[in-house]
Amino acid sequence: MVDHTAGKDFIFTPIGSMGEFYAISSEECKAVIKMVVEEVKGKNVVMPGVGRAGTLETIRMCQYAQSVGADGAQVILPYYLIPEEEGMYLHYKQLAESVDSNFGIEIYNNPGVSGSWIKPHLMKRLSKIPNIIAVKENTGSILDYYAERRAVDPEDAVILCGMGKPMFSFEALYGCPGFISSMGNFAPDFVYSAYEAAVARDFDKLTEIVNRTQLYYDFLTKINVKHGPHTGIPGLGGKLTMKTAMVKAAMDMVGLRGGIPRLPLIPLDEEDKAELRDVLKTMGII
Question: What is the mean pLDDT of residues 44-57?
Fold first, then answer.
């Protein structure tokens, strides 16, 4: 991955959603953070996922990331018990104040896995905290994204697309400076081509890339149905379950070590893997 991203605008985010931060121990999380920082060697920015349901444990993990040389941290919204707006503000304020001022905090504003969403007026307030520098925004509404972009001064924090290339293709029209993609784990060059097209304002090229990506998402929809029903309440819980298994299987196919997800998630079966391989071949990834 370091070789593929040399000299590029690329951020490493170990132990995010696809890294299954919720399913591994604190000791394992720390080992991953330390290993990635040591492997990247300052060639790219490293902002590991450190979010926990409570403020104290999040602070501890954030401080550890700083101690081993990470540049910042991605912090999912507190989950399980959802705080009031003031509690949400104080959560991130205390987190930011617990680390050095040059250690960047990226808020992961993901309602699908947390049951909450920081609205534009509160995000504007949070962005005034000096080392809160970015937002990974997972709203599925372009109007909500636009409202947040208007509320937050880009000098205070950048609002990144957390929903991948299809949503980014819309948000890029409004100046979205970048996106997060799980496909980057196994197809970094393909993913980066979408970013380059957006930077060049080449929306015909970006559309072509997104249309190729749709094969992958169509397959995700198919296996979600096949392995369903999902136990989540509509609108909550996300659709990361089989997606995690897909990413890991795709990593295996390109010669990396993806393996299988940890329970309670389940892996792809052999029939799924064969079809996924065909999809990746059609997309030109393998």
Answer: 96
